[in-house]
Amino acid sequence: MLDISVRPNVADVARELSTLAYKQVPFATARTVTSLAKLAADAEKRAMPQVFDSPTPFTVNSVAVQSAKKAMPVARVYIRDIAAQYLAPYEYGGTQFLGRKPGDLVPVNAAANQYGNLPRNAIRRYMGRSDVFLGTVKTKRGDTYGLWQRPTVQSAKGAKRAKGAKLANTTGRMKLLVAFHDPVETKQRLNFGDHALAIVSANFDQVFSAEMDRALATAR
Question: Which end of the chain, N or C, is less packed with Cβ atoms under 10 Å?
């Protein structure tokens, strides 16, 4: 966890304020750190495509903000629990987190969604076919574990008339539908902390000034 404090910045400004303005500092500070946290969260979301090819909305929107309060002027930018498990190695290093999956599922000859991933329950649907199996096949590149489709024994013309023929393997050889890769050590980094620190440093003066003006305008 990275803590970024704006207390010294606030203290410097507060020394030059009038009595009325000084009373509004806690309110303006809470709003400032919340605004900065939201800016940092947006920056993290925009940076994700630099690490992941077409990250899913679930992954991008896992970046969340906990707002600050007047009595506790601390805002928090965090990753929601489920995504935090598989994103952590890309921040701190380590091996890919695959959860319960038997491997990193890579579509080869299987239809993928717009994010390059297998649609939900795709493996289950493929396994429901009599010509598909999960196992290891010897190839020119060595033993390959994955979801394989046996070649159809019918002719291509006959296969077109057969039930499920649209997905029939008429190549005459085994077809790898989905490759199962072992988890690997992550190399790319999200650098969440660096992004947040840069955002706070670049925007504090402007945001705090705007929030102080707002606080004074509503002061009673």
Answer: C
